[in-house]
Design goal:
The chain is an alpha+beta fold. About 25% of the residues lie in helices and about 15% in strands.
């Protein structure tokens, strides 16, 4: 039921938990990343650093409070999506972004299209995991332009 993914499971090694989604074929194919991660989807905890590079676009899944964002990032990473919680321009909220970033001209490339499909498939699982969760259907690309960059 919905309690199986409670935040208290955070420290548990879930790599061997094949019951959750190991029996479904991976939908996003084509990227070298995907091929490597078919057997081992779990990316482990986010490093806590901001992976974004200035000038690249990153898909934004949510503007959220830190606690909600941490749960979303943990869920995404357990499902093979390289999500990170990063500062927003607004000091109160955080952004949940997905790496890798991409140049504006690559928006229609196979890699970015595969990443969008992966975001959608993980989003559907996220929506099913708890009442009120969204399916990431409104994820959008945002260029990283740090205010303090010169």
């Amino acid at each position: 039921g919905p309690t199986s993914d409670a935040p208290s499971n955070r420290g548990i090694d879930r790599k061997n938990d094949s019951t959750s989604d190991g029996n479904k074929p991976a939908t996003a194919r084509g990227g070298a990343q995907d091929a490597k991660q078919d057997t081992k989807q779990d990316l482990g905890p986010a490093p806590g650093t901001d992976p974004r590079q200035p000038g690249l676009n990153y898909f934004v899944l949510a503007h959220t409070a830190t606690r909600n964002g941490e749960q979303m990032v943990d869920f995404c990473r357990r499902n093979g999506l390289d999500a990170h919680l990063v500062p927003d321009d607004n000091g109160q909220l955080r952004l949940v972004v997905v790496a890798p970033g991409f140049a504006g001209g690559d928006r229609r490339s196979a890699d970015v299209t595969a990443l969008e499909k992966k975001i959608r498939s993980v989003g559907v699982k996220w929506k099913d995991a708890a009442n009120g969760n969204r399916d990431f259907g409104d994820a959008y690309p945002k260029k990283h332009q740090p205010a303090n960059a010169t």
